[in-house]
Amino acid sequence: MKMKIKLHILCIPFVFLMIFSGQIAYYSIILGALLWHEAGHLFAAMLCGVKVKSCVIAPYGGEIEFENPTIVDGKSLLWIALGGPIATLLGIGFAFFTPDLIAIRLINVQLVLLVFNLLPVIPLDGGRIILALLYIFYPSAKAFEFYHSFSLFFVTVLLLITINYLPQSIFLVILCLFVWLQIIKEWKYRKYRLAFEKYVMYRLT
Question: Judging by DSSP bridges, how do beta strands 4-7 and 52-58 pair with one another?
Fold first, then answer.
């Protein structure tokens, strides 16, 4: 089965913004940084021998769906989660070898992407790293449910803070809103997710 790569529907406003703002080069750098970041996750999955069913490019990075998630162990989940941030760090290093005008924007975009993605909430990389560590060291269903609750609270507070600084913070508001909606979706189906996690934890023990 071939892996499917899609663009999330919330990326469409960015495309229109790129077209009508006249800053095609700048928004191309953002899109390029997102693709490079996600390539890091996919490369890590390949090294871990994990088959990927689909990859959706989202405003903050991407969402990967495994072909057989129940057989993916905690260490593989950890390395896959780390793959994106590592790729972004390498991208920042490569940026220093580009012309100054490009380097400044490329470094700034990737730094924002890196910092935002390392926030310790689901579905960001920071959250995925913590979830992987929980799978490895503390595989408790209650711990996973508590972490989902924490993520929802954290992003809600962050969203309210960024809204307070509109219109300057419009980009961060969109990112926070997207992450908030993703957490709400996962929270809505938390009973099914907890049942799945219990099954996965049983397979890992």
Answer: parallel
Predicted local distance difference test score (pLDDT) of residue 204: 42
| Spatial separation of the C-alpha atoms in residues 116 and 125, rounded to whole Å | 9
Dmax over Cα atoms in the chain, in whole Å? 55
Amino acid in the structure at residue 110: Q
Reading the block at residue 56, the tokens are 């959706």
Sign, Cα dihedral of 41, 43, 45, 51: positive
Residue 148 contacts residue 188 (beta carbons within 8 Å)? no
| pTM attached to this predicted model | 0.79
Residue 109 and residue 102 in contact, taking contact as beta carbons nearer than 8 Å: no
Sign of CA dihedral 203, 144, 188, 10: negative
Token pair of 156, please?
Answer: 């809600």
pLDDT score recorded for residue 1: 53
